Amino acid sequence: MRIDIVTIFPAIFDALDVSLLGKARQNGIVDLRVSDLRDYTHDRHRTVDDTPYGGGAGMVMKPEPWGEALDAALAPPADDPVVIFPSPAGEVFTQSTARHLSQERHLVFGCGRYEGIDQRVFEHTASRARVRLVSLGDYVLNGGEVAVMAMIEAIVRLIPGVVGNPQSLVEESHEDGLLEYPSYTKPPQWRGLDVPPVLLSGNHGEIAKWRREQQFERTRRVRPDLLAED
Ligand code: 6GU
């Protein structure tokens, strides 16, 4: 999968060299390219923002540098890309979003800062690629960078070959619409706390039943919205 990121803080994405992502890049599974929006400005101050038409607080990102930066990311050999703009005004990113995006060949992330990007950038980009505004949830970050880090981690780990044991992807929270069951390892007693005896019983039917009950109990307690019928 090819991933382009456009940002005014490219250094934030240095963290993608390590861990799972770093390995996926080394193995050639992910081709990640980070570009600096300011490289597409033409004034001495490398200006990327300006005051909003109509007045109001804050600054708006100018369309011209975005136009050129996205021209570069979408130029051949772009591969039928999806352009994702992280935004608290977007649709909520879920495991299902991650699953669908993990099956794409080319993702482009446009990280906005300040009060947002000139609306015409979204409109123009939508005329030449699939565009999605995506939010992590109902809270506000200063910019899209940290949100994009989270989205990329959620997406890339679902690409076949990135996570060592594919079964671990099947059993985790959200894949079956429930939270995951609690896990234990040795020793059987620690600081006066016992591992639930059923897990030491060797009875795989009983263990599976206990884990399922734990999933339902935990989901009902902390995320009843996941159980609500829709
Ligand atoms: Cl995707 N961007 C920003 N700036 N804030 C957010 C977010 C995204 N998701 C939740 N809050």
Please describe what this structure looks like:
The protein is of the alpha/beta class. It has 2 domains: 2-166, 3-Layer(aba) Sandwich (Alpha/beta knot), CATH 3.40.1280; 174-226, Trp Operon Repressor, Chain A (Orthogonal Bundle), CATH 1.10.1270. The protein is 30% helix and 18% strand. The chain contains 7 helices and 9 strands. The strands form 3 sheets. A 5-stranded parallel β-sheet has the order 2-1-6-5-7. The chain has a two-stranded antiparallel ribbon with strand order 3-4. Strand 1, helix 1 (19-26) and strand 2 (31-36) form a beta-alpha-beta unit. Helix 3 packs across helix 5. The model has no long low-confidence stretch (mean pLDDT 95). Residues 86-88, 134-137, 139-141, 143-144, 147 line the site of 6-chloroguanine.
**Separation, N- and C-terminal Cα atoms:** 34 Å
Taken from the alpha-carbon principal axes, the silhouette is elongated
Which residues form runs of ≥5 with pLDDT under 50? none
Indicate the structural class.
Answer: alpha/beta
Lateral arrangement of strands in the main beta sheet: 2-1-6-5-7
Ligands (ions, cofactors included): 6-chloroguanine
CATH homologous superfamily identity of the largest domain: SPOUT methyltransferase, trefoil knot domain
Overall average pLDDT? 95
At CATH level 2, the architecture of the largest domain is 3-Layer(aba) Sandwich
The CATH topology annotation of the largest domain reads as Alpha/beta knot
Classified by CATH, the class of the largest domain is: Alpha Beta
**Count of beta strands:** 9
* Main beta sheet: 5 strands, parallel
Subcellular location: Cytoplasm
Protein name: tRNA (guanine-N(1)-)-methyltransferase
Keywords: Cytoplasm, Methyltransferase, S-adenosyl-L-methionine, Transferase, tRNA processing
Family: Belongs to the RNA methyltransferase TrmD family.
